[in-house]
Amino acid sequence: MTTHGGGDALFGNEDIAAQVSPDTDVQSAGVVDVSAIDPVLSDPDAVAEVVAPTRDIDTAVGEALLRTENLSVKFGGLVALDSVSFEIRRGEILGLIGPNGAGKTTCFNAITGVYKPSSGTVYFDGAPLTKTKRNAITRLGIARTFQNIRLFSEMTALENVVVGTDARHKTSVPGAIFRTSRHRREERDAIERGMALLEFVGIAPRAVEKAKNLSYGDQRRLEIARALATEPKLLCLDEPAAGFNPAEKSALMDLIRKIRDDGFTVLLIEHDMRLVMGVTDRIVVLEFGKKIADDLPAAIRENPSVIAAYLGVPDDGANEVTGDATNASA
Ligand SMILES: Nc1ncnc2c1ncn2[C@@H]1O[C@H](COP(=O)(O)OP(=O)(O)OP(=O)(O)O)[C@@H](O)[C@H]1O
Ligand SMILES: [Mg+2]
User: Fold this and answer.
1) Where are the alpha helices (DSSP H) in the chain?
2) Which Gene3D superfamilies does the entry mention (predicted)?
3) Any idea where the domains of the chain sit in the sequence?
4) What mean pLDDT is reported for the chain?
5) Which residue from 105, 111, 326 has its CB within 8 A of the most atoms of ligand 1, so it is best to mutate?
6) pTM for this model (two decimals)
7) Residue 109 pLDDT > 90
8) Best mutation site among 106, 269, 270, 287 for ligand 1, i.e. most ligand atoms within 8 A of its Cβ?
9) Which ligand is nearest to the CA of 78?
10) Does domain 63-141+232-330 have CATH number 3.40.50.300?
């Protein structure tokens, strides 16, 4: 179930079930003075310079950026993810789809270290993540957004992004307390970078607004900006368009393409088939925790098992997967 974020209710059942608290991903940046900044940063070249300064787009050749090998996650007797193997190639947008309860979010949680797999391995950038903790996984370059929006609701949009940037800061705690020149420089850089990211996702004019006062769509964009602030190699988006109208979905698709074109690799969970087909390079389909297909979008659209999984009918191949496959509980 996806709920609209607002006020303090920016966390959802999925997080509560996982016993995840909101502030374990990011550490507070301390006091960030954003009162003096001009919330409009309009030079597109300056934005590009900050968002993707030296990134090479390394498409689909060589070793996969991420690979899961027989990845399984169990909750008591329930096998939520059942020996799933797939890879995400550098520079691609990989769609991860499947009906409600198929194991998509569980797969994200296993990749990002929220859940410990009961068996199997995740390899990222050539190394296994078996013993790697969540914060270390973020530092290695995997960032994510959540199916239920999670933001620091009382912080401004800019502060929410700056806490993401902070994962990269070098200043020691004494440096921050005594506001050394290095700390001030880092703070200024973080603010500039935060503004550039807000501009990149299209919400710079709202920079000094509290997260809780942003529209639902802008909160979703802010989550993406905050994830990008950790300078990830892989950005995992869990239903970023949930609750959007068609125009908002189309704008979000453009943003996801722009993110990929800037050299990030993207793993996208999304129910809306039109969105998934339109934006992804490849698609992995889960059903009851198992991978049932892994192919190009055009082939997925006509795959009888996928059609059957979505329509809940025997796979006679008579139909095609179209439109929004979200059922009432998504
Ligand atoms: N923390 C948990 N404890 C127990 N069961 C869980 C937990 N998280 C997920 N599950 C169960 O694991 C299965 C897969 O859930 P998951 O959230 O990964 O599905 P999903 O594909 O993301 O579905 P949706 O499209 O509804 O978001 C479901 O049966 C779900 O109830
Ligand atoms: Mg989910």
Assistant:
1) 13-17, 44-51, 104-111, 134-140, 157-165, 173-177, 181-201, 216-228, 246-261, 273-279, 297-301, 304-311
2) P-loop containing nucleotide triphosphate hydrolases
3) 1-49+157-229, 63-141+232-330
4) 79
5) 105
6) 0.79
7) yes
8) 106
9) 1
10) yes
